[in-house]
Amino acid sequence: MPVVPLKELLDRALADRYGVPAFNIVNDLSIEAVVAAAVAENSPVILQTSVKTVRMYGRAQLFDIVHTLIRDSTVPVTLHLDHCPDRAVISDCLAGGWNSVLFDAHELDVAENLRQTTEVVAEARARGAHVEGEIEGIQGVEDDLGSDEAAVLQTLEVAVDFIQRTGVDCFAPAIGNAHGQYASAPVLDAQRVSDLVAATGVPMALHGGTGLSAEQFQDLISRGCAKVNISTALKQVYMQSSLEFLRGAEEKGKWDPPSLFTHQRAAVMAMAQEHMRVFGSSGRAW
């Protein structure tokens, strides 16, 4: 199945109140493992690339890797550029085949953010792509972007106006969530998700998912968080499974890279499948 538009994935998820998992992949192995998990669960999936990963590989090479690994997939896949404040990178990725971007302009004042996001939406539409918007920074640093300072919240009216005037296809609200590991159990403003969806009909994106309970995920998804980001959990399981395997290899004095890759793949795949089941996306592919 070819890459499917973000809006198609999220409109279906919002209507039926399940969450499409959006995994921040880091290399070819993580891409293949996540897609294999989606096929095993018959789940739609979003592959997210950070600006850091795009720059590490180079846009053209990264797209070729993704395209090769999803070409024969039997489930709907979207390729999304996560948290990008750089208009040049956004334009490059849209021109290079990404069909969804998050223009992260929360550091600008709302008026300038609105103006530039409207331009990004127009640019994306011209290429058949979609846009996620944001006006409040999600607390925490991820892939060298962000801040540990608490987000400055806007009023519901300001957020609704931004969504409606820009025409974004998805919106990432700050609701007490945070990137990375939570130091303590987060107190989430779940009602804000319900209010935004009721006022706009636009699906919400949940950031800072790693560390939330299954009950928190399911409550927020039922309110309209149709896109659920998972980044830290993938990085942790990828590196922790590597460490576990390498310690064993050192003890045995046996160094076999393909066995390491198999171990990493199994760990990432299991993590992805677990999230798909919690989010209710298993069995939702078409």
TrEMBL record:
Keywords: Metal-binding, Zinc
Name of the protein: Fructose-bisphosphate aldolase class II
Residues the record marks as active site: 82 (proton donor)
Alphabetical list of Gene3D superfamilies matching this protein: Aldolase class I
Organism: Modestobacter roseus
One Pfam family this sequence matches: F_bP_aldolase
Any one GO MF annotation of this record: aldehyde-lyase activity
Binding site for Zn(2+) 2: 104, 134
